[in-house]
Amino acid sequence: MTDTATTGPLHGVRVVELAGIGPGPFAAMLLADLGADVVRVDRPGGPGLDPAQDLTNRNKRSVLVDLKAEDGAARVLELVERADILVEGYRPGVAERLGVGPDACLERNPRLVYGRMTGWGQDGPLADRAGHDIGYIAVTGALGLVGEPDAPPAVPANLVGDYAGGSLYLVTGVLAALHHARAHGTGQVVDAAIVDGTAHLTTMIHAMLGAGAWQDRRRGNLLDGGAPFYGCYTTADGRHMAVGALEPRFYAEFARVLGLPEDAPGQGDLARWDELRETVAARFATRTREEWTELFAGTDACVAPVLSLAEAAGHPHLAARETFTTHDGRVQPAPAPRFSATPTTVRTGPALPGADTAEVARDWGLGAR
């Protein structure tokens, strides 16, 4: 194991991840990116992508354990005894049935932080129901914010629920609980429900709604595409530009570069916003995305090209900051955020199931396997 200066601020923190799919593995990846020693407990024939391609398993190590085998739970509890954090994403009650629920783990290690990642949470009428990101963001109101008013809501991949409302809240929770455990000597259970996190993400919108500054409908507000100066427009080559010229001084720069006619409706003329949107759209349709990108370069007009995933790594700003990195020939997002004293990096590629069993046994002081 290397030192904290080359692995990140969580160097020395031991994490057990019970293999799953989606937000649990991503949360564990974030902990691993930050320098934690994450040991993923894979099961024979486990779920997910081809293990060699699953980037959410980077910076981790893997041991293979059949939790349904006679000694499966005991092997996991050996790891738990030496761990700081455990992350699991089973439906409520499954970990308990497998013998690795919170009671069994905290009895073995009272300082353990036991992180639970689910969609609906550990209790409530839907707790034992199946679900996916789209359903979680639907009932919290987040999905209803996105898209055209006269069409079904647009689906924002699974970023808002699984990863923003789920993974990031689980990581926040287990790190807060780890701080408490180190200060007071007692662990606890962190119940990270995607519905809770997603609802929490909408706090500012609820504040604006309560203040009368937000309409409870799509495309009726400043930040949901309702304003003609905050949205996306099609260019001459069928690509798109994103506009976020909210403040008057930025809007003035936007209007100048775009070449809006002097008689165009004003930014604050709400009654003529539809007319302004048509005028803006007509102007963007006269040039390609590349041409508009060049014209807006170096300005404070708050305009950016809408890039595909494959194009993003080549954006000059992201390239300069090394927002994407290459490891084993694969371009991928670099760890974030950044630290001045304990920089993070992609240390290893995806952990292959069971490949690190002997190494983990040695490093964690386990019995021979």
Report on this structure.
Helix 2 packs across helix 7, helix 6 crosses helix 7 and helix 7 packs across helix 8. The two termini are 20 Å apart. This protein has 369 residues and is an alpha/beta fold. A hairpin with a 2-residue loop joins strand 10 and strand 11. It has 15 helices and 11 strands.
Ends apart, CA distance between termini? 20 Å
Shape: elongated
From the alpha-carbon coordinates, what is the Rg to the nearest angstrom?
24 Å
> How big a fraction of the residues is strand?
5-15%
Oligomer: single chain
Q: Kindly state the number of beta strands.
A: 11
Largest sheet: 6 strands, parallel
Order of helices and strands: HEHEEHEHHEHHEHHEEHHHEHHEEH
Summary?
Helix content is 36%, strand content 14%. With 369 residues, it is of the alpha/beta class. Strands 3-2-1-4-5-6 form a 6-stranded parallel β-sheet, with helices on both faces. A 3-stranded antiparallel β-sheet has the order 7-8-9, covered by helices on one side. A two-stranded antiparallel sheet has the order 10-11.
Which helices and strands occur, and which strands form pairs?
Blueprint: H1 4-7, E1 14-18, H2 23-33, E2 37-42, E3 60-64, H3 72-81, E4 85-88, H4 94-97, H5 102-108, E5 113-118, H6 133-139, H7 159-184, E6 188-193, H8 194-201, H9 203-210, E7 230-234, E8 240-244, H10 248-258, H11 273-284, H12 289-296, E9 303-305, H13 309-312, H14 316-321, E10 324-327, E11 330-333, H15 357-364
Parallel strand pairs: 1-2, 1-4, 2-3, 4-5, 5-6
Antiparallel strand pairs: 7-8, 8-9, 10-11
